[in-house]
């Protein structure tokens, strides 16, 4: 009996090895570590910090190499030149969305983030157009962010300079801005429904960054047979989608096609215009998931960045002092900051960029895929192959940013103290799949942080030297550790 088991296992391994060799012959894939049958290279990958694994492997195999997550090959691009060549120079060919099995269980490839082909192009184009119509890049959306910044300041005043964990307060502000855009609604910072949504969004990022979800993305079948945090993630997704569905129903009942109020209204009007088109992508499913994508990405990534920003500012008080000196010089203590101020505040601009560069919030980007068979650097990558672009390798490039592991706003300043742009700044990714909300996020980070530093002195509850800024999770996203501080009114 034992001999039969051994024979069956041996034959299975040989069969799988044969299948792997067949798949590799379909294209001339880049080199990489030899995969094991069934599990691929999973034992060689640190699922707690995939980015670190990619850095180490790039030293052996160069800037373009292949990893097997299970039986599926993934081509990894490491370093600015390789990432730029793919995402910008060959943007259309590398514009596909790679597999993300855990998230796909929730959204079934609808919406903006995980869709492909015609659906993705139409949802992205419509979302960008609607954001512009709503006022992205114009005064109207800036007014919305400024109003929320004032609410944020007032909420921080209510802490009375007592020690506080800023997680939820900093989460409320960007979430309210995106809620205003999606369904023309902002919440009080104590609204329990609002706080529940924020808690779920916060929990989702932690789960997506957990080792277990990285394993489930490699072996999706595990989700069907094993308990785990992926079930919590799917439950959270379902709750938020149901909440958005209720908002859509409310909008359907009160819709005025001549006076659209927000993203949902614009989408419903487009649905009505295309109701006779059987191939239309403007469906309730795409509305719910597109709204979910905007809601999730527009809330959690910005709030996580804000949270990390405040942590870095209390860790490095000398940076905070220089920013506040610039604020006093350019804006003063009484006028509200505006986006026009940014061009006169090179140090603040450099600090905001350095925060994003340093924290490297999405280290390996959301997976891409090639949309056709493509020759890339003498390799032939078959259509549909997943592509991982290491944003860490770009944002932490030691030639562009000397001492990249050190937090230094000087990375974005020239010798005269003027702001210095860098093509290596890819915090929002690059190319055809660059973040839809990049403009909004840049505005929020500048205005929220400038307002906070104009109105408060930040004081850590521990000695700055003892503050740990190491992320507690570094899978899908870099999540800062929990901390407390005093917001002392100036």
UniProtKB/TrEMBL annotation:
It is found in: Endoplasmic reticulum membrane; Microsome membrane. Its main location: endoplasmic reticulum. Heme binds at residue 435. It comes from the Eukaryota. The keyword 4Fe-4S does not apply. It is an enzyme of class 1 (oxidoreductase). It is a peripheral membrane protein. One of its GO terms (molecular function) is oxidoreductase activity, acting on paired donors, with incorporation or reduction of molecular oxygen, reduced flavin or flavoprotein as one donor, and incorporation of one atom of oxygen. GO terms for cellular component: endoplasmic reticulum membrane. GO terms for biological process: organic acid metabolic process; xenobiotic metabolic process. Its EC number is 1.14.14.1. Gene3D superfamilies: Cytochrome P450 (1.10.630.10). Residues 1-25 form the signal peptide. Keywords: Endoplasmic reticulum, Heme, Iron, Membrane, Metal-binding, Microsome, Monooxygenase, Oxidoreductase, Signal. Its cofactor is heme. Belongs to the cytochrome P450 family. This is unspecific monooxygenase.
């Amino acid at each position: 009996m034992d001999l039969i088991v051994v024979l069956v296992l041996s034959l299975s391994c040989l069969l799988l090895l044969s299948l792997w060799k067949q798949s590799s012959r379909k294209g001339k894939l880049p080199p990489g570590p030899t995969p094991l049958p069934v599990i691929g290279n999973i034992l060689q990958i640190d699922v707690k910090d995939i980015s670190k694994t990619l850095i180490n492997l790039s030293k052996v195999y160069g800037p373009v190499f292949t990893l097997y997550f299970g039986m599926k090959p993934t081509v990894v691009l490491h370093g600015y030149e390789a990432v730029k060549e793919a995402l910008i120079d060959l943007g259309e060919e590398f514009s596909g969305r790679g597999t993300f099995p855990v998230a796909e269980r929730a959204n079934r490839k609808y919406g903006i983030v995980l869709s492909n082909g015609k659906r993705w192009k139409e949802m992205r184009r419509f979302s960008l157009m609607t954001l512009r119509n709503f006022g992205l890049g114009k005064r109207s959306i800036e007014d919305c962010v400024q109003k929320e910044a004032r609410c944020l300041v007032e909420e921080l005043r209510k802490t009375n300079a007592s020690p506080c964990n800023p997680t939820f307060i900093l989460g409320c502000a960007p979430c309210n801005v995106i809620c205003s855009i999606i369904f023309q609604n902002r919440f009080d910072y104590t609204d329990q429904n609002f706080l529940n949504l924020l808690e779920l969004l916060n929990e989702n990022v932690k789960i997506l960054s957990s080792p277990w979800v990285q394993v489930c993305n490699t072996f999706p079948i595990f989700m069907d047979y094993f308990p785990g945090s992926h079930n919590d993630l799917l439950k959270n997704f379902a709750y938020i989608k149901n909440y958005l569905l209720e908002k859509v129903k409310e909008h359907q009942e009160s819709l005025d096609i001549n006076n659209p109020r927000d993203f949902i209204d614009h989408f419903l009007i487009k649905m009505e215009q295309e109701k006779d088109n059987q191939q239309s992508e403007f469906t309730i499913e795409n509305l719910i998931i597109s709204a979910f994508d905007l809601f999730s990405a527009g809330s959690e990534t910005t709030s996580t960045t804000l949270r990390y920003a405040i942590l870095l500012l209390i860790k490095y008080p000398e940076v905070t002092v220089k920013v506040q000196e610039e604020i006093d010089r350019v804006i003063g203590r009484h006028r509200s900051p505006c986006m026009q101020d940014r061009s006169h505040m090179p140090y603040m601009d450099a600090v905001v960029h350095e925060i994003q560069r340093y924290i490297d919030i999405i280290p390996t980007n959301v997976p891409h895929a090639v949309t056709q068979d493509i020759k890339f650097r003498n390799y032939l990558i078959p259509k549909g192959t997943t592509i991982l672009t290491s944003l860490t390798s770009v944002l932490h490039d030691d030639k562009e940013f000397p001492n990249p592991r050190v937090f230094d706003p000087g990375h974005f300043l020239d010798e005269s103290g003027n702001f210095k742009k860098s093509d290596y700044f890819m915090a929002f990714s690059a190319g055809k799949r660059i973040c839809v909300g990049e403009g909004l996020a840049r505005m929020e980070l500048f205005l929220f942080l400038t307002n906070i530093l104009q109105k408060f002195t930040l004081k850590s509850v521990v000695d700055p030297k003892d503050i740990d800024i190491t992320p507690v999770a570094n899978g899908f996203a870099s999540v800062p550790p929990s901390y407390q501080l005093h917001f002392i009114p100036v």
